[in-house]
Every structure is written in structure tokens, then in C-alpha cells.
Design goal:
- With 91 residues, the protein is mainly alpha-helical.
- The protein has a domain at 33-81.
- It is built from 2 helices and no strands.
């Protein structure tokens, strides 16, 4: 039954990436009027480059975790089976 969750998880991951990109764009626009700099943008300061990278990382991680969790809960609600681990590893 957990194999049935795989396609749902893949679709949820794609949607999470799209949502995270939109959230990042909105949040960055509140911080700075310019586009977020890439690491190889020559005239961008270290502060702006690292701030953009940190914000992007946090946005993507939190959005992915929220979508994964909601997808797992929805799957459990529909099928009655949790698609992942029941308890955290002791390692």
C-alpha cells in the first residue's frame, strides 16, 4: 500500500518546489527591490548573496516539510495507513 503513496509524493514534491519558489520571490521582494543575486553575480555583495541563499534554503526546506507532512496526513486519512516511519530512528 505504501507504493501507492510514491506517485502522490512525487507530485507533492513538484508542487512544493513551485510553491517554495513563489514564496521565496514574494519574501525577497519585501526585503529588496532587486532580483536575488546568484553566487556568481560579480557586483553583488557577500551579504546579499548569502542572505538570498539562506532565505531560499529555509523557504524550500520548510515548504517541502509542510507539503510532505500534509500529504502524508491526507494519505493516512484516505487509506488509513501512514506512508512513512511511525517513530524516529534511535540513531
Amino acid at each position: 500500500m505504501k507504493l501507492i503513496y510514491k506517485p502522490f509524493g512525487i507530485v507533492a514534491g513538484i508542487l512544493a518546489g513551485l510553491l517554495a519558489r513563489r514564496i521565496f520571490t514574494v519574501v525577497w521582494s519585501k526585503i529588496d527591490d532587486e532580483e536575488p543575486p546568484e553566487a556568481k553575480t560579480e557586483l553583488a555583495s557577500w551579504t546579499r548573496v548569502l542572505a538570498a541563499a539562506a532565505l531560499q534554503g529555509v523557504t524550500f526546506s520548510v515548504t517541502k516539510a509542510a507539503v510532505d507532512r500534509a500529504g502524508a496526513r491526507g494519505f493516512e486519512h484516505v487509506f488509513g495507513i501512514w506512508p512513512g516511519e511511525k517513530t524516529p530512528d534511535k540513531d
